[in-house]
Amino acid sequence: MKKTSSSSRSGLLLMEIIIAILFFSLSSAVCLQLFVKAHNLGRDTRELDMAVRQASSVADIISQSEHPSKTLAELYPDLETDDRQTHIYFDQTFALCSSENACYFLDISAVPADGQTSIYTIAVSGGHASEEIYSLEVMSYRPLISGGQPAEAP
């Protein structure tokens, strides 16, 4: 009888150990998922913060400069311009870079509203999802210069 009693106790102990291991493995899986979600949320927040900062900086330059295209070219030497759009490229840390090393990019497009007013759309895209992170619209007024022409727009 002692043998039966000690073997049932060891079987019960083994069952308790298996249940404890199962509980701790489930708890560690849940904690790991929480850490991954926190990391992703932190990365997304950092991307949004840097995108807002860069878009706001460009919006300030456009709205306050007499010659925005010249000022942008001086401050962002690697910018590229085509017909109606300007592109500024950033690496993973949002430092300026060339288009080959870019992880993020800022696009500026201008649409004339009337003879003296232009509407600029500034959009920051890229990152881990390669989609638009932040967008901003700026209306800029250019006073007439001598000769009846509005000041330059990028």
Care to give the gist of this entry?
Helix 1 crosses helix 2 (68-75). The protein is built from two helices and five strands; from the N terminus they run ααβββββ. The protein is rod-shaped, with a radius of gyration of 29 Å.
Tell me what you see in this structure.
The chain is of the alpha+beta class and 154 residues long. The protein has two helices and five strands. The chain has helices at residues 2-64, 68-75; strands at residues 80-81, 85-90, 104-112, 117-126, 131-141. Strands 1-2-3-4-5 form a five-stranded antiparallel beta sheet, with helices on one face. Strand 4 and strand 5 (131-141) form a beta hairpin. Helix 1 packs across helix 2.
How would the blueprint of this fold be written?
Layout lengths: L1 H63 L3 H8 L4 E2 L3 E6 L13 E9 L4 E10 L4 E11 L13
Antiparallel strand pairs: 1-2, 2-3, 3-4, 4-5
Which sequence of SSEs, written as H and E, runs from N to C?
Answer: HHEEEEE
**β-sheet strand percentage:** 15-25%
Number of strands: 5
| Share of helix, binned | 40-55%
Main beta sheet: 5 strands, antiparallel
Shape: rod-shaped
Number of helices: 2
Rg for CA atoms = 29 Å
